[in-house]
Amino acid sequence: MIKRILVTLTALAASAFGQSGFAVIVSKSNPATHMPKAQLRRMVLGDMTSWPAGGKVLVVIATPGDPARGAMLKQICGMSESDFGKYISQKAFGGDSAAPKVLPSTAVVVKVVKLTPGGLGIVAASDADDSVKVLPVD
Amino acid sequence: MALPVEDNSHTLGPIQFRGFSDFTYGRPVLSTLQNTNLVNSTNGFSLGDFDLFTTAKLGEHFSMLGELLITSDFTNEFSAEMDRLLLTYAANDYFRISAGKYNTAIGFYSNEFNRARYFQTATGRPLLFTDEDDGGILPVHSIGLTANGKIPSGELGLHWVAEIANGRGSVSAAALLAGSAVEPVQNYVDEDNGKAVNFAIYARPSGWNGFQTGVSMYLDREHPLSLAALDQRIYSAYAALVRPHLELMTEGVYLRHEFTTNHDQFNTVSAYAQASYLFGRIRPYIRYEYQNVPMADPIFGILGRKDGPSVGVRFDLTDFVGLKIQYGRVGVSNGPTANDAQAQLAFAF
Fold first, then answer.
1. What single string gives the DSSP state of each residue in A76-119?
2. Residue from B288, B291, B287, B289 nearest B324 by CA
3. Do A42 and B92 touch (CB under 8 A)?
4. Judging by beta carbons within 10 Å of its beta carbon (0-12, 13-18, 19+), is residue B230 exposed, middle or buried?
5. Sign of the torsion angle spanned by Cα atoms B90, B96, B97, B101
6. Is the pLDDT of residue A8 over 60?
7. Which residue in B1, B84, B243 is closest to A78 by CB distance?
8. Is residue A15 situated within a structural domain?
C-alpha cells in the first residue's frame, strides 16, 4: 500500500514538472532516473530507438481514445490523434518502422513494460503500480 | 525476467501492405511544359500513381521495402514501375545500409514525402523534384548502395548519408529533340564503369520540433549520346519546419555540368519555397518556384527558365483522404506562360 502511495506521489511529482494526465513508466531494471521532454518526443516519434545507457527502446501505448495517450501526444509531440496517425504512416512510407507498439489497454502496457528491460510505456498516473518505475518528465 | 517474445527468426513476415493514389481534375502545369504530341485539355480527369508499398522484417537487423507503381505519363499509357526496392541492414541508430533502388538523398522534399500526394500539401512535387523521366533535372532515384545514421551530436541531432550508385543515363538536348531517349535510372546497363556518389549531412535539433536543415553533394560523370563526357556536380541546401499546423520549407540546388575535354561549364539553379498553415481542417498554402537552366546546357538546355507561384487550399475529408484545389502559373523563358487549375482527391491506405 505504501509503495502504491509512493508511486502515485512520484507520478504527481512528474505532473508538477508540467506534464499532466499521463505518466512515463519503464522497467525497474532500467537505470534511467528522469525523462527529458525532447527525448520522450524523439522516442515516441521513432527518431531515437536506443536508450542513452544502451539497449533498444520499445515504446508501448494504449489504443487511440486512451486519455493518457492523448495527453502525451498533445503535450509532448504537439499532435492530435489524427496528426499522429498521419505522421506514423508517412514515416512508414519513408521506410521507418520504429512506430510505437499499440496494446489493447493500459493494464497490458504496464505488464509489458514490467517484463521488457527497454520498454517505455505511457499510462495514466493512477495505472502505474509498483511493478514499474515512473520517470519524471522534465 | 525478459518478455517472452516469440522467436520469428525462422519464419518470414509479418508483411505490411500500404498504398496510395490520387484522382485529379484539371491540367497539371507540367503537362504544358513537356515535349509531347498529345493534345492536352484544360479540363481532363487523370489518375495519379497507384502505389503498392510493402515492408517486412527479415530478421533482427534485416528488413525489406518495396514500392511498386502503376503509373501513366505523357504517353497516356499505364505501366508498372519499381519506384523503390531496398534490402536494409540496420546495425543500430548510427549505421544502416541498404542495397537496391532508392530516393537519392538530395534535398528534403522527395525523401520526406516520397511519392504519396496524400502526404504532400500541394497537388504535386516542386519542379525541382520532377521525376527524371518526366524531365526533372535531379537524379531523384538511384540504384546502388545507400548508408545513413546518426552522428553523436547531442541536441544538434546530426545525421549522415553516403551513397554510391550507377548514376543517371543521359541524352543530349539535341538528341532528345530529335527523338532519342534513354532510361535515366540505369539498372542493367550502365553507360560507364564510374559510379555516382552522394554525401549528405543534416540536423534535426531536438529542441526545435519538426525542424530539419541539411546540405548534400552529388558527383557523377555523364556520357550523353553523341557528346563528350561531362562531369555533373549537384549541391543542395535546405531548411524545413514541418509541424502538424505549420509548414515552412525552402530548398535550392546548384547543378553544374562541365565538359571533361574543354572544361566549358553550364550552371543551373533551381529552388522553391512553400508555406502553409492549418486553420481547423482547412490548410491554405503557397509555393513559389524558380528554375533556370542555361539554354546552352548540353543535357537540360531545352528546359530553359521557369518560375512562378502556386496557391491552393487543402481540406482533409477524413484522416486519409485529402481534397486539394490549386492554381498555378509558371512563366517560361522559351514559351508561353503556363497556367494550371486542379482539383485533386488524394488518399492513402
1. II---HHHHHHHHHHHHHTT---PPEEES-HHHHHHHHHH-TTE
2. B287
3. no
4. buried
5. positive
6. no
7. B243
8. no
pLDDT of B126: 94
The CATH code of the domain that includes A119 is 3.40.190.10
Rounded Cα gap, residues B108 and B128, in angstroms: 11
* Secondary structure (3-state) at B118: coil
Q: What is the DSSP string of B18-81?
A: EEEEEEEEE--GGGGTS--SS---TTEEEE--EEEEEEEE-SSSEEEEEEEEEEE-TT--EEEE
pLDDT of residue A17: 43
- The answer to whether residue A69 is domain-embedded is yes
pLDDT given for residue A37 in this prediction: 92
The domain total for chain A is: 1
Half-sphere exposure of B54 (CA within 13 A, CB side): 14
Mean pLDDT of chain B: 88
Measure CA B298 to chain center.
Answer: 23
- Tell me how crowded residue B29 is: count the other CB atoms within 10 A of its CB: 24
Task: Decide if B55 and A50 are in contact by the 8 Å CB cutoff.
Answer: no
Mutate to test the interface with A, among B3, B64, B150 (most CBs of A within 10 A): B3
Q: Which three cell numbers stand for residue B119?
A: 502526404
**Does the distance separating the beta carbons of B57 and A48 come in below 8 Å?**
no
Flag whether pLDDT at A57 surpasses 50: yes
- Residues of chain B with C-beta less than 8 angstroms from the C-beta of A94: 111-112, 114
- For residue A115, the number of C-alpha atoms closer than 13 Å in the C-beta half-sphere is 9
Cell 521507418, residue located? A96
Q: Which ipTM value was assigned to this complex?
A: 0.81
* pLDDT exceeds cutoff 80 at B276: yes
Give the minimum alpha-carbon distance from B302 to chain A in angstroms, rounded to a whole number. 33
Cβ atoms of B152 and B94 within 8 Å: the answer is yes
Please give the residue range of the domain that contains residue A100. Answer: 20-135
Most B CBs within 10 A among A60, A73, A93, hence the mutation to make, goes to: A93
Residue A96, in any domain of the structure:
yes
> Does residue A95 lie in a domain region?
yes
User: Closest residue of A to B119, CA-based?
Assistant: A90
B97 membership: H or E segment, kind and range: strand B95-103
**Smallest CA–CA separation between B3 and chain A, in Å?**
5
